[in-house]
């Protein structure tokens, strides 16, 4: 009997064709709507391989019933949606899709910084609503990006790609990371800073750390209070790193200038979320890696990892 693969979202036929040649492939039949908990549990109990999205929560309880499951390949670089400890205990390999999304995600992060600091969203909204009555000397003035300082929290692959872009804008790069990055210090003249120091000094703060027990709630009321009144905060890795209640207060009371958000504590972010009522928030729906080429490359990595594990080979991008 051929091994069975379940894919939790509808992916392009041409990309999954190689899987179909070798294995029995079942796929959730919608691109827009997430697989139901019921179906996911049923499939986990039966299949040999699972291709998951970052929006699927695969917890210990779900993995209890997995009897044949050998690999979970997550279509994301982040894998906080999967209980990797539980997977490891059951000998299930977990893979992710790094590298191919680095530059695309850095593009989004930098674009979001520009849009937020220069207030693209409120300017466009006003224009579309017919509110552009005349050019005004101080209308829609925001904060400069070029020639300012940026504080990158999390100097991993995407952090470095962001630093490269920042250098092109003549920015001074401060960074905070678990370990010093001497290459980045040389290449981008990046300056290591303790978190508090970075928050006090940066004109723009970009969050690029993964979501872990250590980074959960890392930016709360105390940290936001350290930031400049003119500073922007860009959050593009995972929700839950920034305390959204504290962020709302800081933006509402204008103790920071603006925030650009791609990720949220709850996704999809509820449309009535208080942060979405604020004019100094630029919000996009978790689209860091969303270019056609990159999303296809991520899917390709999932296909390869699943094939490798089911054929008894060591996959690339194994996280446990
Ligand atoms: C990831 O892959 O973890 C990114 O958040 C996708 O945009």
Summarize the structure.
This protein has 320 residues and is of the alpha/beta class. The chain is 35% helix and 14% strand. Helix 1 (13-22) packs parallel to helix 12 and helix 5 (102-117) packs across helix 7 (157-168).
Please give the CATH architecture of the largest domain: 3-Layer(aba) Sandwich
* pLDDT averaged residue by residue: 98
- The figure for the number of domains is 2
Described by the principal axes of the CA atoms, the overall outline is globular
SSE-based structural type: alpha/beta
Quickly count the helices: 12
Query: What share of residues is helical?
Result: 25-40%
The CATH top-level class label of the largest domain: Alpha Beta
Q: Provide the β-strand percentage band.
A: 5-15%
Order of helices and strands: EHEHEHEHEHHEHEHEHEHEHEEH
In CATH, the homologous superfamily of the largest domain goes by the name NAD(P)-binding Rossmann-like Domain
The CATH topology of the largest domain = Rossmann fold
Question: Key features?
Answer:
Rossmann fold, 12 helices, alpha/beta, binds (2R)-2,3-dihydroxypropanoic acid, 2 domains, 320 residues, seven-stranded parallel sheet
Written account of the structure:
It comes from Sporosarcina koreensis. GO terms for molecular function: oxidoreductase activity. Its EC number is 1.1.1.-. Belongs to the D-isomer specific 2-hydroxyacid dehydrogenase family. By secondary structure, this protein is α/β, with parallel strands linked by helices. It folds into 2 domains: about 5-100 and about 290-310, Rossmann fold (3-Layer(aba) Sandwich), CATH 3.40.50; about 100-285, Rossmann fold (3-Layer(aba) Sandwich), CATH 3.40.50.720. Helices cover about 35% and strands about 15% of the residues. The protein has 12 helices and 12 strands. The protein is globular. The chain starts with a strand and ends in a 10-residue tail after the last helix. Bound molecules: (2R)-2,3-dihydroxypropanoic acid. (2R)-2,3-dihydroxypropanoic acid binds next to loops.
């Amino acid at each position: 009997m051929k091994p069975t693969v379940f894919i939790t979202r509808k992916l392009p036929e041409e990309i999954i064709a190689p899987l179909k040649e070798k294995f029995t492939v079942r796929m959730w039949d919608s691109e827009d709507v997430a697989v139901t908990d019921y179906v996911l549990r049923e499939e986990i109990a039966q299949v040999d391989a699972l291709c998951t999205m970052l929006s699927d929560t695969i917890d210990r309880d779900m993995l209890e019933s997995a009897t044949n499951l050998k690999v979970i390949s997550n279509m994301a670089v982040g894998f906080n949606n999967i209980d990797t400890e539980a997977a490891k205990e059951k000998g299930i390999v977990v893979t992710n899709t790094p590298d191919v999304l680095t530059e695309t995600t850095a593009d989004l992060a930098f674009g979001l910084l520009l849009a937020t600091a220069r207030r693209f969203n409120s300017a466009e909204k006003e224009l579309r609503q017919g509110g552009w009555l005349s050019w005004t000397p101080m209308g829609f003035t925001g904060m400069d990006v070029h020639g300012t300082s940026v504080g990158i929290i999390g100097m991993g692959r995407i952090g470095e790609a962001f630093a490269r872009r920042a250098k092109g804008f003549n920015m001074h790069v401060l960074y905070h990371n678990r370990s010093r990055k001497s290459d980045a210090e040389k290449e981008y003249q990046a300056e290591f800073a303790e978190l508090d120091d970075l928050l006090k000094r940066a004109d723009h703060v970009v969050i690029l750390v993964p979501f872990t027990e250590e980074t959960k709630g890392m930016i709360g009321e105390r940290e936001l209070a350290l930031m400049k009144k003119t500073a922007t905060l860009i959050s593009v890795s995972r929700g839950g790193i920034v305390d959204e209640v504290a962020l709302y207060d800081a933006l509402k009371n204008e103790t920071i200038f603006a925030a650009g958000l791609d990720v949220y504590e709850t996704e999809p972010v509820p449309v009535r979320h208080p942060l979405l009522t604020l004019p100094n928030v630029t919000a996009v729906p978790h689209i860091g890696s969303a270019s056609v080429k990159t999303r296809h490359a991520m899917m390709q990595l999932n296909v390869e990892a699943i094939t490798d594990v089911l054929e008894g080979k060591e996959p690339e991008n194994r996280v446990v």
